């Protein structure tokens, strides 16, 4: 057995549990004193204890005859503390600092694992510790000296003022009653320093008698460290398995058993994060980083994660700004939250932060003062918005924190266009909320596809524009040539129509057109759709894009009945944003094509005479209405719409009189309310067609 065991048993010892001093045994530590410099030989003048608080104080003498002791300093300290008089309350009765007080603090709140072991004649006797205390010098006498000094100054001031005082002034006293204390206030008060000090002062001191280490009384007390009763009845053999005995010695910690949080608030564990679903991973990451390029986000994902899945998830919690992803405002500010600075609700914070994000889609720079003026939020809230996505620059404002990501814009044009549609919907909402002027909307546009031009040099923009112009010219020539060939094949006669193409050279001025690098709009692919429609009409086929657009227009007007052109474009942009990437409507729809589809769907343009001082643009003054819906209210709606050809607003009594003249008593109040609700809105006691109310 000895050859097989690397760690043989040398000796077996019996262990006894002594309980005589279990509730009275303390371990004293002196952390500022070297272990070889003990206080055993220093006279202990007094000792006292507060058992409930485990607070101990010990007075030890100072050797005033030592050559290292400065007598003048000792006298000065004693005079400052006690003054010239000597009584029972004096700290230094000899008028010399001849002692120092050591005060204790608890080194460990839980001492259930600690014992004192006493070895004797092959036996080990252990006694549990009641407390572990660290003793450090106390300087409470300095507080007493300060109190004495303030009392002397107060007495001198009172003596000087009493000579000039004739009689005391009568002062008004205001009596106030304190309101009932809440539970939270009680808890804060119980944790305050003043409350703890008051609680400590309530327990009285128990004075002790100190015995030296070599004193006979000390030797007698040390005998209690041995187990007094070692009979077989009370000291039975411990019958436990090794695992049970180990668990008794080292019980599991309560903190280790507590469940770990899903996502730490201050430290982000990537190993723990990757155990969550992909959508939760991206949401937690975006809440922490606020702004990130897509390439960096893919680098944080686990190996084998598809970019398509990441793109689908990132669009749910973030918006595209200058080619980078910025976390959405409603993710940072949930509905029930509020501002820690001003206390405004989360809805107001989300609108303000969306405005800052939208400003960065227009320009690289944002001025905090301008944002605060528009959003009416405090400077601290605005600064929090900007800290999430920008860096302050001296005398310039706040610059977007990341450079424009042109690579992402080129690789994912469908995502870029989808995000552009979403931003247009947000822009229209911000226009109404903050009453933005046209100057705010037209200054320094830098949408998704044009943002790169702001970080390019002039030569780069010129070269790109020239290349784009040449590309457009070549495409135009190719399309015209294809039309020639189709015309020749379709003609049944031998006469061939000669199509002359006038080619004009591209000048430098024309090549400066950078419209191809502006934001996505409804007219960027007009020529493509016109060509496709003409080709498909020749072959007798129906354009699927036109069919999809017609379905959208018909369903929209059956819900709204009356729409302005600008409102229809806004709804169309929101519809595009809800479509999956790669949908056929993403190929580009012009304003002209949209308007023609409205007319073809059975709608009519209502010529509403706006007042001359109206600020609405000609495009905004175009109002379309569904003329025939197929229900029982078509004639009533048509009569109502004809009334608005005389004025852009009408009173209800005028409408009711015209309806009664046309339909007699057959038109009830409920029917009139239904027709008005379908086509009009009421504002200031007047009725307007939907979308024509001028703010």
Could you characterize the architecture of this molecule?
This protein is an alpha+beta fold. Among the domains are: 14-62 and 98-155 and 190-252; 272-455, no CATH class. It has 27 helices and 21 strands. The longest helix has 33 residues, at 458-490. The termini are far apart.
Architecture blueprint of SSEs:
Layout: E1 14-17, E2 26-29, E3 44-50, E4 55-61, H1 71-82, E5 99-106, E6 115-120, E7 123-128, E8 131-138, H2 140-164, H3 183-190, H4 193-202, E9 206-208, H5 216-222, H6 242-249, H7 254-257, H8 270-273, H9 278-289, E10 291-292, H10 294-300, H11 307-317, E11 318-321, E12 324-327, H12 329-332, H13 346-362, E13 365-366, H14 368-375, H15 379-389, E14 390-393, E15 397-400, H16 406-411, H17 413-434, H18 438-442, H19 458-490, H20 508-511, H21 526-539, H22 544-560, E16 562-564, H23 565-578, H24 591-600, E17 603-606, E18 623-626, H25 634-643, E19 649-650, H26 652-663, H27 669-679, E20 680-683, E21 686-689
Parallel strand pairs: 1-7, 2-8
Antiparallel strand pairs: 3-4, 3-9, 4-5, 5-8, 6-7, 10-12, 11-12, 13-15, 14-15, 16-18, 17-18, 19-21, 20-21
Helix pairs in contact: 1-2, 9-11, 13-15, 13-17, 14-15, 17-23, 22-24, 25-26, 25-27
